[in-house]
Automatic annotation (TrEMBL):
Residue ranges of domain ABC transporter in the record: 19-253
Transmembrane annotation, as ranges: none
The protein's name: Methionine ABC transporter ATP-binding protein
Upper classification of the organism: Bacteria, Pseudomonadati, Pseudomonadota, Gammaproteobacteria, Chromatiales
Molecular functions per Gene Ontology: ATP binding
Source species: Allochromatium tepidum
Amino acid sequence: MAWSRTLNSDSDTQRQPAVEIRDLTFRWTEPGPPVLRLDHLRIERGERVFVAGPSGSGKTTLLNLLAGVAVPRQGSLRVLGRPLEATGGARRDHFRADHIGYIFQMFNLILYLSVLENVQLPCHFSRIRRERARRRSGTPTAEARRLLKQLDMADAGCPDSPVNALSVGQQQRVAAARAFMGAPELLIADEPTSSLDADRRTAFIQLLFQECADSGATLVFVSHDNTLAPLFDRTLSLAALNRATADRETALQSGS
Ligand SMILES: Nc1ncnc2c1ncn2[C@@H]1O[C@H](COP(=O)(O)OP(=O)(O)O)[C@@H](O)[C@H]1O
Ligand SMILES: [Mg+2]
């Protein structure tokens, strides 16, 4: 029907917020205590959001949900307009490959692949990202080189050398270049600066901002280092947002 085509068109999807969560409860084990209980959380397209919270407060769990790695049994979770709570495993894998760049705390680079091969990995799993890389720079390899240069990695020796020859700061920038490859709409970063000193931390975040501004991407950045928060558009305090934390504290106080 014409109206459903209109509703589901690309431009309509692009107008949806980057993230919209309602009445979500998530448990890692069923039955078990909820790790996350969120009434409402909305992140607009292009926002740069800092997610704060002490260790164990559910920051990585939230990122796993946004990336469709974990699925809530209760509530709704829309990412880039897609209802992930109602999307099967294989479709979620495709969705992640096409639309999400993930910078892991430990980078998760493939150590036996070269710098260039690591950065191009998303193009192997997603035609959309391969096409975007081609449109931007002609070939995925050229786009990988552009991103590495943009992230101040032009002087990091030979891009054909294996990544295990790089310093931690350099590995981190390779991980960022890989996440940006093929311009995914949502960038997720899980404590990517925890192994850097303060100056390098700020410089790295400025590089992330620059790339996000270039591609119009939304950035969800997690850290337990609150000194970074003022750099971002907005801070989400998970300790305040997550009603599961309050429930646990109440249970502890009442001795139950
Ligand atoms: N894959 C998992 N399986 C089972 N429990 C998990 C898993 N990941 C995290 N948890 C539990 O969920 C809670 C929140 O953890 P996490 O989201 O990693 O917090 P943070 O990133 O804020 O330190 C902790 O109690 C942790 O043990
Ligand atoms: Mg974590």
